[in-house]
Please model this.
Amino acid sequence: MTERTGVFAGDDPFEIARNWLAAAEQSEVNDPNAIALSTVDAEGLPNARMVLLKDIEDAGFVFYTNYGSAKGREIAAAGRAAFVWHAKSLRRQIRVRGLTEIEDGEQADAYFASRSLKSRLGAWASAQSSPLESRAALMAKVAKVTAEKGVNPPRPPFWGGIRIRPLEIEFWADGAYRLHDRFVWRRDATDGVWSVERLSP
Model:
């Protein structure tokens, strides 16, 4: 493997990513786990939006969403997604591209239960990405759901996790005179062996 030192050191890209996120949690003002998630629609037109990365596992990156949302539908159709995580305070970023899978089991149930009650009720009330008549109409739906679901609503069947199993992870750190350091990890399959190479800035 390409020799790497400092913040790039290590033989596990997921551990490196966890270390970078932990460092950002000490320096970023808001949402250190925010990522810009990219998908493509049926015509191949890209979409991007900010979501919160909730877990860096030993083999993937997990976020949660309404499966009926634009991103949920596009991921279901394409089976792949990409994201970039940027820590402005650290002058670092991580780019990920990979294959997707649904996480709608106990792990999703546990995360949903950990959210605030209002967030759980909001997940039931919002038909994410669909047209909405007014804010008042949304709040009326929230009131209706609150009356129906009570204080311990279960996870909606249309809401859960999406796991990105990467085929490519790039770590980037700012360098003097724009001579940045970039290392890309690549593999041919989600259970394959990683190769690492340095990229020109």
